[in-house]
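Continuing the series of single-chain predictions for the mutant panel. This is the parent chain; the variants come on the following pages.
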Amino acid sequence: MKKLLIILIFIFATPVFAEDTFVDVESGDWFYDYVQILVDEDVTSGYEDMTYRPYKTISVEEFVTLTLKAMGEDQAEVETTHWSDGYIAKAISLNIIAEVEYNSYTRPVTRGEMGRIVLRATGVEVPDNFMDYAHAINDLDTMTPYWQNIAIRIYSTGIISGYPDGSFGLNNEANRAEAAVILSKVIKPDLRDQPDNEWSLYQKRVSEIKAEWANRMPIQSDVFLEIPSLQVPYEAGALNQNYLTDGLNMMKFVRYIGGVSPDVYLSDTANEYAQNGALLIATSEFSHTPSKPEGMTEDMYQKGYNGTSTGNLAAGVEGIADAIKRLMDDEDPSNIAALGHRRWQLLPGLKEFGIGYVEKDDLYRYYTVVKVFKGMEIESRDFDMVLWPNKEAFPIEFFGNEIPWSVSLNPGIYDASEISDITVSIIDETGNTRVLNSNNKDLQGDYFNVSTAGYGVPFCIVFRPDDYEYELDKKYTIQIDNIYLLDGTKTSIMYETRFFDLY
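Parent structure:
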């Protein structure tokens, strides 16, 4: 009898492992330990055929039930017609789920919904600085602010990790293996993988720019509040306010990524000059000094001339937002030497500007005027230099292989008369170097120029390597040598940037 007792004690003390419980869970599986925890804690017993079915999607009702069991809760005592009714009722009573959130409890639960359920059910402590983890979620910009908040909070606790590519997969349907991992971390806090919160300047800048773009990207709206008339009697027309806002937001965004103040505004006066200017270049010639069309009043012509002679002009670009973006390129032979459009739009002190836009049934079809100087509010703003592309991080959608770089230096700090020996080196992270200087004047290839003309900041170094392929996330170092300060000191400038995909 004593021998039998010893044997029985040994049998009952032996743990039951998942591979002994489930025929489809083996010790080498990545989810093995987590499934075992759910078995040990009486959270799950699997299916009647001795399977766990780790790769089967898990439904809302199943995950809610397992979560309640993991928290030591039982189902509510309610009249049931379906096996999960008691657990769903309990979850609703505890504010773990809301009836309006689900059109069906039998459909697969998503990773985002699992995060929301766990946050509500557990009251897990979320770090005060949880927003600092936003940079680590690559697909955060695909979520609404509501779901961004949930994803960042649950991610910062270490209960739900992202995928190897850095994405969260908010709307991905979850499987039973994932559920085992998540609920095991709920039960045993020491299993939680506290994410790395080291945030490089590059990652931080990428996150900031993407957030800014989400607020500034153009929206679809009607173009005209009043339709222009491009024949006698001429009428300048007026742009829809939402359409003007698209242009304002694009100007704010290019200035933001260019490192100058985005605190600019559209004025009615500047818009009137620009709108008349757009009408003028559409009905006369495409020029900063167009002639007066026959039948146009002198007052309209003078307003239009004011707009064209003090503004950036674009033809053939649909939409004012795209026109402002396109004016930043200045890669064509007639503009690359001075980059006048870019320099005016990145003038650090710019406050007030105006936009005009007209459509015409001809070769160019779209005509835009952006009034950026003369007779408008300018604000004194300190700056050292203005870079395009800017340092740290820059969206590739706003640059390209044919587009020139520019470094505009404050002539109140740097000597614009000592420019003959300036050189620029572009160094990629493998050490490959391209050097440009005053000998490079190929308008279609390697190009270098120092412009001291009065466009925006009147000291601008322009350079473009020929046939150069920029790669995403790859570091490029820019070194500019043989620059002089006003006190005669010789100096150099060095900065780094990486290109990233805005979308």
